[in-house]
Amino acid sequence: MRIRTKLMIAMALNILVFVGVIFFVVRPYFIEKSMEQDRQTVESQIASVKETLANRKHMLERTLVDWAVWNDAYAFIQGKNDSFVSSNISEASLDNLNVNAIMFLDRDGNVHYSKFQKASLALSASEQEAFISEIATRVKGRDGKQDAVYASEYGPVLYAAHPILRSDTSGPAQGTLVMLEFISADFIADLSAQTKLPLAIGPSEAGETKTSTQDGWTRVLIPLDLVFEEAEFGVTFVVEPTHYRNTVTMLRLGMVALLVLGVGLFLSLFWTIYHVVIRRLMKIVGELKQITIERDSRLRVSLNEQSQDEIEQMAASMNEVLAALEDTRAEVLDKAYRDALTQLPNRLAIEDYFSSVRGDHNQIGVIGLDLDNFRRINDQFGHRTGDAVLIYIASRLNFYKEDGFVARIGADEFMFLHPKWTLDELRPVARRLMRDLSDWSEMNGVKGLTSTIGLDVFASLHPHHTYEVMMGRLDVVLHEAKLSGKNRILAFQEIEDGSHYLQTLEMERDLRRALENDEFELYYQPIVSPHPFAVRGVEALIRWNHPVKGQVSPGLFIPIAEQLGLISDLGRWVLRQAVSEMKGHAMRHHLFLSVNVSKRQIADGSFLAELEDVLAESSFDPHLLHVEITESDVGGNLYELQQFIQSLKTLGVKISLDDFGVGTSSLSFLQSLQLDLIKIDQNFVKGIPENTFDRALLEGLYQTFHTLGLDIVTEGVERPEQLAFVLEHSSSLIQGYHYSKPVPLAQLEHYLKKTVTLYDW
Fold first, then answer.
1. What residues contact residue 731 under an 8 Å CB cut-off, 6+ apart?
2. Is the overall model pTM greater than 0.70, yes or no?
3. Which of 25, 112, 609, 756 is deepest in the core (most CB within 10 A)?
C-alpha cells in the first residue's frame, strides 16, 4: 500500500476517531454533566426549601420560648397578672409576632386565654371557640411533641407549644403556651419568595423526600414531617431541566460544525503534506535503499542546495552519519563492554552475562566489592596509586573467578558472579580478597585501605528476580555493611528480615504510592472554650490507612517523610484537603482551622505558594486559618522565620506555636515572632493537680502569656480535675480527650451537631 494511501486512511481514521470520541465520549460526558447539574439544582432547591421551612419553624419556636419562659406569663397563667393581656397582647402584637393566634392553656390543658388576629380568618365566636377547643385537645395528646402541621376545616394549620416557666426556666410548668399560623396562600407565597420557587402544599404521607420525572421535568414532594415533629402535608414544586436542554442543543450544532470542519481539514492536510513532505521523503528513501543494497558507505544521498529546510538538513545529517559510521563502529564495539583501566567487562557486559546464564542455572552466587573511602586514597596517595589498587583488585578477581564472571561496575566497585557457588563457597573467596588487599596495602605503604564485601545467592529462575532486582539487593547489603562499620563481609540473607535500610526503602515506596492512591485521611480534634461551652476550632491531623499494614502511626511515617523530602508533598495535601473539608463547617460554626507546617516547608517556600493558591481557589476566610509551627522548629534562622510569619500575617492568617515546653526557646525570642496563640504541651498537664512543681510552672506560664496578650490552648486535658485546674487559673482553650480525641470528618460533623443541639439554648 502506497504511503499516500496510508496517509489518507490515517488522516480519515484520525478525524473519524476524533469525531467518534466527541460523539461517544465527550457528548455523553457533557450530557451526563448537564443532567448532574440539573440533579444538583434539584438537590440545592430541596435543601433551600428545607432550610427555609426550618428557619420559619425556628423563628416561631424562638418567639414561643421568649413568651413562654417569662415571669409575667407565669404569673398570668396562675391568675396573678390581670394586666398581662392589656399590656402585651393586641392585634398589633400578634402581627409583630407573625402569628395568627395565641393560646394560654392551664395545667389541666384547658383554655385560659386565646386571641385571634382578625385579619387571619373571619371566624365567628362559636367557630373560634370550637377551633380553640380542637387545638387544646391536640396539644394535650401530643405526648411531649412541641409542633405539628395538621388539616383543619379551615386548611392546613401550623402550631407550636411550650411549657410556661419562670424567666430562669425553673418550674414547675403552670401551663402551655400555643402559637398558630394558618398555612394560607400568603404563607405559601412568602415561602415561594424566599426560595424563588413556585411552591404548593398538599396532603402527604410521612416519609422521605420524593422526586419523579415526566417529560424531562422533575416534580419534588417534601413531606413537612421532615421539619416538623408531625405533619399531614407536603410541599411540592417542579424544576425545568434547563442545563440538559441547553447542552443537547449546543452539541447538535457542534457536531454539524465538526463534520464540516473535519472534511475541509482532511483535504487541506493531505494536499499540503503530500507535496511538501511525502514526495521528497520518498525520493530520499529510494536513495537509501540503493545504498543499503550496494553496502557502500561511500555513497551519499543527493542534496538540493537551493532548499535549506528540515528535510534537506535531514539528508545532510544522513550523509554525515554515513561518513562517521565506519570510523566509530570498531571503537564503539571495543568500548561498549570493557573498562579501559582494568580491562575488565563493565556493567553492560555483566547484564548480558546475567541474561545468558539465568535460564540455565537455579541460582547465581554474587560477590560485590566496594573500596572504603577510596577518594581519600586518591587524595592522599595520588591517582596513580588509586589506579594501581584497582588494577590489583581486578587481577585477584580474575585469579579466583574459575568459570565465573568478573566486572568493574563503578569507580571503586567490582562484581563477581558464579552460576554454581553457594554462600559457603563465596565466603572463602571474599575473605581471601580482603586478606590480599590488606597484604598489598601493607607492602606498598597505603595505610587505611579496606573494602566492604556483600554476598548474595540469587534465585535466578524466580520470575520476579530480574537483573535490576539482583543489583538492588547487592546495593542494599553493601549499604548495610557500610552502616555497620565498613571493612567487613555481609550476606543479604543475614539482613533480609531486619534491614533498617530495606524498611526505609519500603516506607519510601509505600509513601509515594500512598500519595498517588489517596491512602491518607484527615482526623480533626476539637479545640473547645469550656465556659460558656463552644467549639472554637479544630486541628487537622493526618492519618495513613495502609492497604496491608492498616493504620500507620504518624510518629513512624512523618520522620521518614521529613528525611526523604516528601513532607512538602504531604503538607500540600493536608492543606488542600483540610480547607476543602472544613470550609463549610468553619463558616457555619465560625470555627478556626489549624494546620501544621514543617521546617522544611518553611525553608523551601512550598507552603506559602500553595497557601496563596488554596485561599484564592477556595475563598476560605484566612482569618479562620491557623498555621502551627512547633517549638522545636523555632531555632535556627530567625530572620527566615520572621519573614515567613510576616508573609502569613499579610495574608490574614493566624500563627500558633505548637508543643510549647518541648523545645528550648526563650520567651523574649517567642515575643519577637508576633505569635497569635501558644499551645502548651501536654507534658505540663500530666502531673496536674498532684504535682506541685507542675502546678506552679503552669500557673506561671498562664500569667506570663496572658500578660503578653497571647491566646492559649492547653493540650492533653483528659481528666475532670485537670480541666478544673485550668479553668481556675486561666481562660485557656482546651484540646484533649476530655472533650474529644481526633476523629474522622463524619464523626466531627456529628460532634458539632450534637454540641450545637445541647448548648444552643
1. 706, 712
2. no
3. 112
